[in-house]
Each structure stands twice: as C-alpha cells, then as structure tokens.
Amino acid sequence: MSIAAINEQLLRAIGVGVALIDMETLRLRFYNDTFQEWFGDIEVGQHLTDLFAGFDPDALKAALAEEGRFTTETTFRVRRRTMTVALAFNRALENSEAIAVLVCQNISRIKELESMIDSYSMMVERNTREIKREKEQVEKLLLNMMPRSVYEEYKTFGIVTPRLYDPVAVLCLDFIGFAEMVTEHDPGVIVSELNDIYTAFDRIGEQFGCARIRAVGDFYIAMAGMPDPVDDYAQSAANAAVRFIRYLRQRNETHPIQWTCRIGIAAGPVVGSVVGVQKYIYDVFGAAVIHASRLRYFANPMCIVANRLMTEQLDDQFVALSQGKIELTDEKPEEVFKIEADVHAAEGT
Fold it and tell me: What predicted TM-score, i.e. pTM, was given to this entire model?
C-alpha cells in the first residue's frame, strides 16, 4: 500500500472531518467519512458554496492568499439535530498545485456549554439584580423606621445599643376631629390625605433637621437633635412646627377636607433603641416624649405649646406666651408656653 493510500485511510478513520479543496475552483477533491457523515449526500467536485450556506468564497481566497489560513463556523441540521462545526482552511501544495486542507471539528457541545453558561450567567445576573433591588427596598424601609446611623449599626452588628440622647426636642402632632373624619370619608381618601400631609411634613422636617420617628394614624412624632446632637435642636423643632401649621392653613384654602392640628414640643432626654425581635421598630421614649405628647392636649387648634426647657432655647424670632402651670406628669405642675413665630421670619425661609 502506498503512503498516499495509507494517509487516505488515516484521514477517513479520524474523528474530524477532513477535505481537500481546489484553490482555484473551491470544489471538493477529497473528503473523509466523517466529513461525509456530517454534510450528507456530497460528492467530489461539489462547490463549497453548495455545502455551507452564507459562505464567502472571496474572503476565503483572500485569507489563504495573504495568511495561508482561514477559519469560520457553520451551523446546520443533521437528523433533526443542530450541529455546529468549526472550519479551518490551510493552504498547501499537492504536486505544485495549490490546494486548501479543510479540517472540521464538531463544536456543537462546546456551543451548547457556552449557551448554558450564558443562560446561567444571565440568570445569576438577573437574580443578583433582584437581590440588589430587594436589598434596596429593605434598606429604604428600614431607613423609614430608624435614623441612618442606627440602621448602619443594626446592619453591621445585628443589634442597636440603647442610647440616651440629652437634650433633644420632641414634636408631637395630632389632628382635631380625626375620628369623625375617618367615619365621614372613604378610607382611601383619608389615607391619601394623610399621605400628602405626612409627605409634606417629612419634607419640611428634613429642611430644618427634624426627622419623623413614626406616625400612627393622626399621631405624628418627630425628633430634632438625634442621633447626632446639635445645638439648635429647639430651633429646628420649632421651625418645623411653625411650618407644619402654615402648610395646613395654605392647604385648607384649596382642599375640601379641612385639617386642624395641635402641636406639643418638649425638650429633654429620650432613650432611642430598636424594640422587638420579629416585628422590631425603632422607638424613642422618655420624659421629653411624654411631655410633648401631653402638651399637645393643651394646645388650641393650629397652635403650638412647649415646655420651659424648650422655650429657653429659642431665639427672638419666636414669642413664648405663658399658659400657666399644668401637670405634665405626676410631678409638680410645670409652666408651659404657647409658641408663636415671627411671621415674616417664618415665611422668609
């Protein structure tokens, strides 16, 4: 057996498709059994463009002339199965006649694995985005329940150390006739109204450094001077309270439902901490909270009442009018003050 015959048998036996292509005509001169198995009913002399859809013969000739090599891929159907084959053309000589050796490798499995990896990567990326979005929602929810510094401590250590904040200003607000309003109007209307009002309060509070701690129905409580202590905590709470009332007055001029609030503000110490395990909430409690909550009961409609410690911290843009002594707690009666703001100063900010 000649060397050429041995080589031909070897080519027919290997697991890759091999073919010899005439460089001038791009027609098949030889192919092995694997090549024939993949590409079906073919014959010697058949043109490459008959085998490979979308094949660019000019690009093949140019690449073989310049670099002596050309690679591409082709995908086709074999017995109801999609097959992808990598094609590698290499320029060669046969008896001084230019030919191209075409080596075909089945890369269908590789393509399937690449597709699976891409799908898995997309799934991981999608899940990562979903986890990130859920994390942001949880973070946003928790930041509505507690100050950021408290949230950072809770996120890092899983607990929040109870802290005494002294002094701070506590602002407590509720609406007169709220129970009757709830029964007179559709629940959705009341919720929508509260949403608008509390959103405006939050915006005003943020402007003056007085952050809402929580709102339960018509009871709105905000703090100034915590978690980071500030010297002007009383000014912050008073400024926010004045503008809460001014906002409601302006709103009542154009809205059918009239809202009338009363506000109590007290300065003093509070304790802040996360309370609960499964249904935890950041809460504040202490003398200042009790005083502010009780002070609002002594406030006339659309008025602010504060304790002495609070009024002593206010500057001359506010006027404090004594309202006599009341028992804020079981201790001895304490003098309280109605707080009025300089209108021009209040509206100028």
Answer: 0.64
